[in-house]
């Protein structure tokens, strides 16, 4: 009974199709593919899209997640919500010269909600939302592709009909399992693209609803047109590409609702044909709707421009080398080469990389470069498709090819470098929306091949094979995005010339304590890009820790020579010069760092250490005080202030500073220890004991904590407790300075007391 019911539904769908679109060829007719009821088709798409990316749910925060989420103060409850509307995606002020001008407040808002519900930076919740979003988008694609491939038709009851159930299912599956989407789904910052795509599709479907109660587009709902504009604005507030849906809605209106022949219209305009007045443009309201869309788009862009400011985004040559080329020819050739690589990633998404910048794709500088072939192939295919889209006598072919090209090209325009410089060479995440166009063209090509093929099932099996391979590729790529180590190492084979890949592998190794391996990758990064100042800085830091001071100084000096405002390198150079006992140069380097970064607590801390070494105690205390003002939780600066005041006999001041520090950082055991020492010297034994015990509870394996508590008990006269903690201290560290001597003194005293008592 269930099967017959489904067959009846499919039959009624075909009958409706023949009644309402007799002149329109059926794209599904010659396709050998699964025919499922709408809700079953959506269930299948949702399930398969979930399978593709499910293994990314428990991944870490990786790559850009650190800056966009962990280090982004806009996620924290103490940051006013209003700040989100004046900050960029990374939490910087839009008015700042260093801002990338990526204005995505709604995406940041979802991160903030994630953070608040999770009670901190726990990546599982962030990943789960991304997976759910992709599944939702893939399900919506069934409806979107049914319109784009089958046309927009409604039943007498106003219910939209799916006139291409087979091909819309195939296209939605192609979209759901495309491996190039892994960055958007498995990388948490990819949520910007997912949210943008969600509202992009809702805007399109909302626009289609404007024609639900109308015949041939004569009447329409202004309400739904305005809803479509609002949803487009929301899409843009998630990511910049969202605004392009308004242009695509206009293209859809012209081609599907008004059935315009673009080539015929252009010819009439050129020849000033009087029949143009009767073409139906005004009668069907197309111009009015396009005016609404364009006015809405212009208003949205103007508001965004006012918020963002007039300054261009701040990018460097390593981010996008072609955009900095002096020659217009070199820029144009390389931009087109980048387009061909993006197209290849859609066709063959096997070589995927988290970052394609910094030498990954060397510039084409002459026409003799063999890579010019890729440009020629791209434009040969595009021109062929455009000619068919404009000149074909088959209106159905014209419509599908134009829509396919529109959805492929228009959402990509903001990333094309045509209107403004972008901060990347290739970014897989920006192909998320253009892949809709690719899926349309692929599915249409499959239908044409099916029409010609004698063995349609073999062709269907081949396409099914492609889908299965893509599912496996998605699962593999998702697992690589689960940790930075896997992600960075996966890029070594794809982009061996990318200095940033080697830098990130080195940084990941250094963070894990494997300095020897990290040095190797940092050296390779510097070799590939001799001006890579961040690699020089990190390599210099490791060499400094390994006491290879001469080479460390050379690297850091070169880094600040290449980039004079690189504050971190100036500070690290100062640390090296301090270690080499070149104190005046070190002081100068620290002050240069502070000049370039006014709020630099770590630099003030290191400057204080320099002054302490020079016995300039007042200057040292002032420097550490500055560090704590800029960063109240700077434990090392507080500790050094307490210790210096303690060592110079200023016990009252040391106590006051210690109490102030513990109010700000109440759970810091090192501060408890330092203040306990001061209180013990001030003979405030009870309070000192309480702090020592609290510090030991927080860090029970610190030999010095037990040793100093033993000294306190020794002074206080609690000799048994003193003996106990001396023994614990020596057990933890048999070579603890002074502890053994104090313990021996205590034992002799105890022996003397025993003799007297005897």
Automatic annotation (TrEMBL):
Enzyme Commission number, as recorded: 2.4.1.109
Claim: Transferase is one of the keywords in the record:
yes
User: Where primarily located?
Assistant: endoplasmic reticulum
List the GO molecular function terms.
dolichyl-phosphate-mannose-protein mannosyltransferase activity
**Positions of the DUF1736 domain:** 311-383
**Example of a GO biological process term:** endoplasmic reticulum unfolded protein response
Membrane-spanning ranges = 39-57, 131-151, 163-182, 188-208, 220-237, 286-305, 372-391, 403-424, 430-449, 458-476
Q: Any idea which UniProt keywords this protein has?
A: Endoplasmic reticulum, Membrane, Repeat, TPR repeat, Transferase, Transmembrane, Transmembrane helix
Subcellular localization is given as: Endoplasmic reticulum; Membrane
Gene Ontology terms: cellular component: endoplasmic reticulum; membrane
Q: Which top EC class is named for this enzyme in its record? A: transferase
* UniProt xrefs under Gene3D superfamilies: Tetratricopeptide repeat domain (1.25.40.10)
Segments annotated as TPR repeats = 499-532, 533-566, 601-634, 703-736
User: What protein name is recorded for this chain?
Assistant: dolichyl-phosphate-mannose--protein mannosyltransferase
